[in-house]
Write a structure and sequence with these properties.
Layout (H helix, E strand, L loop, with lengths): L7 H11 L6 H12 L5 H13 L3 E5 L5 E5 L1 H17 L9
Antiparallel strand pairs: 1-2
């Protein structure tokens, strides 16, 4: 599987989930909102998280009756690594100045 088949609102939560130990959906939402500088509605985030779970990128469990946690699956770690390598092929470490 490749992350190229995912939307930005599916790929970006993967990076957030990778940076935490089983973050909740709310924690993931807050981190994304901080980075994006705008609100993400529950109606946009949670269906995308469910897509990641259904496609095998993310595992989901319950912290309590109202709160779920999310964790990367083995497949997800491989896909993130492959995506990172792909991006590195096209993005140099130092972007040259045009002058």
């Amino acid at each position: 599987m490749t992350l190229l088949e995912l939307t930005g609102l599916q790929r970006d939560p993967l990076r957030v989930i990778a940076g935490f130990d089983r973050p909740s959906g709310q924690q993931t939402k807050s981190e994304l909102e901080t980075e994006m500088g705008r609100e993400i509605t529950h109606g946009r985030l949670y269906p995308n998280l469910d897509t990641l779970v259904n496609r095998g990128y993310v595992e989901k469990g319950q912290l309590d009756r109202r709160t779920n946690w999310y964790a990367l699956s083995g497949q997800d770690r491989e896909a993130l690594s492959a995506r990172h390598e792909w991006e590195d092929d096209y993005l140099p470490f130092e972007i040259p100045t045009p002058w």
